[in-house]
Amino acid sequence: MSMHTNAPLIEMSNVTKFYMMAREKTTVLHEVSLKVAHGDFLAIVGPSGSGKSTLMNIIGCLDLPSEGSYKLEGMEVTGQSDNKLAEMRNKKIGFIFQGYHLLPKLTALENCELPLIYRGLPGKERRMRAMDALERVGLGQRMHHRQNELSGGQQQRVAIARALATNPPMLLADEPTGALDSKTGMEVLSMMEELNRTGQTIVLITHDMEVAKRASRTVIIRDGVLTEHVRERRDGDETYTGPQDGSQERIVQQA
Ligand SMILES: Nc1ncnc2c1ncn2[C@@H]1O[C@H](COP(=O)(O)OP(=O)(O)OP(=O)(O)O)[C@@H](O)[C@H]1O
Ligand SMILES: [Mg+2]
User: What's the predicted TM-score (pTM) here?
Assistant: First the structure.
């Protein structure tokens, strides 16, 4: 597993993001505060246009907050240079996207070796680590297949293995089941649950509350405002009070 520090993996305090359009300020994230511990499986759920991708880009060090503090394993992200951001991304985050983003001419194994090439690892070690990651997602028998020789669910599992290959502290997934039918989507989610059980921290972004239920914790984003979704437990069974009524939501900023 990845190196753990005492600091939370994610610590956001009052993160605001705004854009200037025709001299008008459009605020898309309003004072978002969020803590994610190592080992968490967090879902961020919200409707279209609510600010999910904006928040993901900040969490993933692809974009910077306009205001507020974002610490990733204790290191301040706000105000960092592009080079530093790229380094933090490379060391700390494994990205998984809806559309897999695999290179079609490469085999599953070669796709998983790519991020390790950027790390400058020697060929033999690359291969070992890529094979290990593919084993972890149950694709030990499919390593030499190319994209068109794999099902959608298998392609997404290759993308997850590629994200795992660098052993990042955080997997960051944007609509990882968005391109899959519901059964295959659930299989991919079960695999992510299994990875989380073995210690992998996962942050999953989705518009689908059913998908979010597979995480151990959910926050809801609406119009750029983040709230924690509180789950009720009855006799060990989890029941979910809908985000629709808002009555079960606790404003994270006030927590
Ligand atoms: N570069 C930008 N300039 C101005 N406004 C932007 C910019 N990027 C995003 N927005 C606005 O910010 C809001 C949030 O967008 P975002 O892409 O984060 O939503 P989302 O929750 O990911 O939606 P979806 O589920 O449709 O992907 C939207 O109203 C969008 O129009
Ligand atoms: Mg989006």
Answer: 0.86
